[in-house]
Design goal:
Keywords: Membrane, Transmembrane, Transmembrane helix. With about 550 residues, the protein is an alpha/beta fold. The protein has 18 helices and seven strands. About 5% of the residues have low confidence.
Amino acid sequence: MSPARQAAPTLSERLTALARATELASGRLDDEAVAASRTVLDRAAERRSLSADHTVVGFFGATGSGKSTLFNAVVGRDIARAAARRPTTSEPLAAVWGEPGSAALLDWLGVTQRHHVDTPLPTGHADAGRWTRVKERITGAPAAEAPGGLILLDLPDFDSVSLHHRTIVQRLVGMVDVVVWVVDPQKYADAVIHQEFIAPLARHGAVTMVVMNQVDRLPATEVPAVMASLEELVAQDGLPTTGLSKPVAVSAVTGEGVEALRARIRQVADTRAAAGARLDADVDDAAALLAEASGDGEPAGITEPAQERLTNGLAQAANVPGIARAAGRSYALHAAGHTGWIPTRWLLRFRKDPMRRLNLDRGGTVNPEVNRTSLPPMGAAQRAAADSAVRTFAHDAADGAAEPWTRSVRQAARTHEQRLPDAIDQAVARTDFRAGRNSWWWLVLDVVQWLAMLAVVAGLLWLLGLFLLEWFQVPVPPPPYVEGFPLPVPTLLVLAGVVLGIFTALTGRILAGFGARMRERSVRRRLRESVADAARRTVVDPVRAELEAFAAFRRALAVLRR
């Protein structure tokens, strides 16, 4: 066997896959398809817990099809009541071969009228039941071997005027292992049986028989044409016209074809595979409904460009550019406080730190779960921008998928819609803005400023001392001069200190401008990372989980389709 070819899954594996697919489809796909799958799973669990030695064969037919008469002919005894009054059968009637284990199975089916048959299915004429008993009395031996555990059910007419009868038929047509459709020459083309019963069970060809009863009422020359017409109708319903589901002509009155029908029933009962085949077909139906509800197409999935667009949209809604600019201005303000001209630094106290105003001056050291920024709540425009970003992301991720999954992806993207603003605010509060960290060159320029200030103070004190001494007419030597300069050293100290301080302040301002722009870019990047993390937790991860659910659903369907 080629490695590429895989063994067909067992019924247990298919049921497990159906359970997984149903779980994933719940709340996402059509409720009727999900309910149908759950019904199949429940029915399968119940049927598999009951007798595997019995095959349940149900006779279904319309009023006047001779269903009960045919049932008696197949059994070989007059068990079911047949009369001119319609409908004849009002409750399900069971003919049971092999009593052990049958009671619980019949209880599950809801069949209370039970007839246990000790003799095997007869052979030959429809009236062979009587001859079988005669032969047994004469020879003392059974006429034929008994089939494996078998339960034949005679059911009410599916077109009965009684709602109770129709309810019984609709319930049991989904529970029996083998379905025998009994039609007659007058009603075999009736739309009710084909559209409401046979066609919906088109995948059940392996456990379906189609019987044309009362062929004795047709001229012998017309039987082939009528059977060909029935085969065509059955084929249109989707059933195969070969094997077990190939229509067979019978007459419960003359016995024509009855033995052929019995032979099919014996074959099915002897293999004891009908219950599993029926469940397999039910799983096929459920899988087809789920596949139809799911639709075709594959979602595009989550891409880097889509995540980038989502982050950009949420960053705009969170006013990341404005916060980054505030961080830059805060940096410039702190730089001026460290490198500005010392005599004017006190004026900076009247300028409030932009980051402090936003409660963002703690450099990411706050606990975002209990602290919030002072950013204004998202306005209508910001909320609209955030919603638009989320919708666009969901649309991009689900692009290509059918509507049910597109809808579920959109819903997943909006799972945390109400707390998205808080999540973004926490992300901003969690961001490290480096608000309290100084640049290395601040210290250098600050030292220069203080040296310049010391020069000014020294020069002023020197000049003040000279002035006081002269005031008190104390003789003092003249102040020294620097060669080439007309001014004395004390005056030069004052002027040099002032010029150096102003020049250093201007240098610091230029450097602070560069640093502010770098800080703005750094904060913008860090904020985007924080917003991207919030987007991942509140939007991307739920969407990814939904896409993973889609993939798991498709994998389960693949198992069901093998």
